[in-house]
Give the backbone structure.
Amino acid sequence: MTTILRVTETTGPTKRIQELPVCVSEHAYISTPFWLKTGFDLFKREANFSRDYMLPKLNIEMTAFRKTMANYNDVSSYSALIRRKAMRPGTDIPLIPPELSSFWTEHSERSTLSTGLALQRVSRDERDMIGRWRPEGSDTYIRMYNGGIARLQLQYAKIARQQDRTVMLDERDVIESATSSLTDRLDPMSDEDMRVLLDNLDKSLQ
């Protein structure tokens, strides 16, 4: 899926960066190669109305889209809800401990992808393409960008689908960051509760 963003908080006709190319490869999946088409078909069906933005806001019941744009806070809350509701395949066990549903942000994917590629010794010039905001709008640049990003996404996804991904991607720092996040909570947890929660997180990364 490729597109061009022309109006965002930091892009537009009157701003230094006028356009932002976006590329999401169909090969960037963990469990099913049909994820992008399935999601895009659902999106076309459920948000089948004219608009000049991509993501509409959900209604209060979160059962349908409203004809108004979702802002950053809306999207963050949707993502956190998905993390709270997601279960391990074939079980009723949470995929991620609910207490950590807000641990990740809308920027986590970009930093995770860049770090993972660095561990695979991808050059810095190539890694800098991830999330790069560039003013160039030529067709040549956009084709080069889309091809490069799709290749990097595929390279990361292949590793993330392997059984030894936690070793290949050195995900131990996730546990360390989660520990710091839980320690800084306004409602402190007991040491035992934190140990159990982090053990569950560790298992979910396997």
The longest strand covers residues 65-69.
